[in-house]
Amino acid sequence: MEHKLYEYEQFRGERTIRLLKALPPVHGEFACEIVQAEIDDPPPYVALSYVWGIPITNCIFYVSDKRGAIIESLQSALFDTLGFLSEYRIAGLGGDTVFSQDEILLWADAILY
Questions:
Q1: How many Cβ atoms are within 10 Å of 12's Cβ, its own excluded?
Q2: What sign for the dihedral angle of Cα 91, 100, 108, 111?
Q3: What domain of life (predicted)?
Q4: What separation in angstroms does the CA of 97 have from each of 22, 43, 44, 75?
Q5: How many CB atoms lie within 10 A of CB 2?
Q6: Which of 25, 47, 50, 96 could bridge across to 77 with cysteines, CB 3.0–4.6 Å?
Q7: Which residue ranges make up each domain of the chain?
Q8: pLDDT of 38-67, one tens digit each?
Q9: Under a CB-based contact definition with an 8 Å cutoff, are residues 20 and 108 in contact?
Q10: pTM
Q11: First vs last Cα of the chain: how many Å apart?
Q12: 7 CB contacts (<8 Å, ≥6 apart)?
């Protein structure tokens, strides 16, 4: 199946951010939906800082059945963060916070290259 390349949708407003809603991996690659949220009243989310190492754009990820390319350090950070949050939730830690949500939302700037 040929996947089209993902293109960002325009923001709904001036105070809007994009969040990644994690989905099960596709062909072993990170998969997500991108949702928009108002910065003044966002849902719980985790912010990632991921730029380290050589910025090689060699990792594919899927956004709503469309392909995108991300740098290796972002792919690593996404999988590591999701693994941590899943283990944290399974252990029953974190109370009623982003760590206890069934729907994990992540923020990272400059996702697509």
A1: 10
A2: positive
A3: Eukaryota
A4: 17, 10, 7, 24
A5: 4
A6: 50
A7: 16-107
A8: 999 988 888 887 666 666 667 888 888 888
A9: yes
A10: 0.74
A11: 22
A12: 66
